[in-house]
Amino acid sequence: MDSPPETNDVFSLSDQLLAERLHFVKEIGFGNWGSVWLCRPKSSSGKQRDIEVAVKLVHRSKTPTTAARVRSLWNEMKIVRSFKHDPHPSIIPFHSFIITPSYALITMAYLPTLVPVEVSEPRAREWFRSLLSGVHFLHRRGVVHNDIKPANILLSQANVPVLVDFGFAEKYDMQSPKAFHSNLTYGTPEYLSPERARGMPHDTRKSDVWSLGVTFFEILVGRTPFEYEEGEVFEKKEDLEKYWDRTMRGKWVGSYSISKAVERFLKRMIVPNADLRCTTTELLLDGYW
């Protein structure tokens, strides 16, 4: 990992100074990669200010696993920070990156509301357009998210859906012939495109579009189009293989009630053959809008 540059939003602190600057209110998320906290900055007198921020935190140690997590957080920071002066309303705003002897952390806007599911189409329609615009914004800048799902979408105070958690995101050199080419399989299994789930060479932008389409379906119906019912569990490898077989066939399962217009639109996104799957540019021009 490169040394933190001298800027006003990426810097090193001692552990004590971090404690003097941030009050960690409560943990609001966690995983193998680290944890997310609701924090309040402190004033120079040590009093908490009426500002809330989200802090994604990784513990630093000399183990290879922890070092990889810190590198991943550094990569995430570089991606979200690149939009700081060119923001999009559906991409999480970056505040700062801080590294101490014990921790590495990103501070970002705190948005407490997770996007709901099983909502009416009129309510969801503007969310869909905003999120699609956000993913289009990323792709035009050489970035893919790689983990689009309802759990990574929060609502702003203005009711705008915001894509968060860029831990799996990648940024490509747009001039490279290898831009957007991958055979990696990481991401959340139920939202992986068929080609990504199988580790096949693929265009990561098309994989993002698949995940976004599955996410849109779930916001409307409450489950993915390849689950027979909400809460169907895919913990074992053989269960996931059955699920991925369904995605390869492309036939939606279970009962659902959505308009013909949105069904046609989503079926341009949730197409097993990536060559037939639409790009974000094509989807923004779709007659659905």
TrEMBL record:
<comment type="similarity">
    <text>Belongs to the protein kinase superfamily.</text>
</comment>
<dbReference type="GO" id="GO:0004674">
    <property type="term" value="F:protein serine/threonine kinase activity"/>
</dbReference>
<dbReference type="InterPro" id="IPR011009">
    <property type="entry name" value="Kinase-like_dom_sf"/>
</dbReference>
<dbReference type="GO" id="GO:0005737">
    <property type="term" value="C:cytoplasm"/>
</dbReference>
<keyword id="KW-0067">ATP-binding</keyword>
<dbReference type="InterPro" id="IPR008271">
    <property type="entry name" value="Ser/Thr_kinase_AS"/>
</dbReference>
<feature type="domain" description="Protein kinase">
    <location>
        <begin position="22"/>
        <end position="289"/>
    </location>
</feature>
<feature type="binding site">
    <location>
        <position position="56"/>
    </location>
    <ligand>
        <name>ATP</name>
    </ligand>
</feature>
<keyword id="KW-0547">Nucleotide-binding</keyword>
<dbReference type="InterPro" id="IPR045269">
    <property type="entry name" value="Atg1-like"/>
</dbReference>
<dbReference type="InterPro" id="IPR017441">
    <property type="entry name" value="Protein_kinase_ATP_BS"/>
</dbReference>
<dbReference type="InterPro" id="IPR000719">
    <property type="entry name" value="Prot_kinase_dom"/>
</dbReference>
<keyword id="KW-0723">Serine/threonine-protein kinase</keyword>
<dbReference type="Pfam" id="PF00069">
    <property type="entry name" value="Pkinase"/>
</dbReference>
<dbReference type="GO" id="GO:0010506">
    <property type="term" value="P:regulation of autophagy"/>
</dbReference>
<keyword id="KW-0418">Kinase</keyword>
<dbReference type="GO" id="GO:0005524">
    <property type="term" value="F:ATP binding"/>
</dbReference>
<protein>
    <recommendedName>
        <fullName>Protein kinase domain-containing protein</fullName>
    </recommendedName>
</protein>
<keyword id="KW-0808">Transferase</keyword>
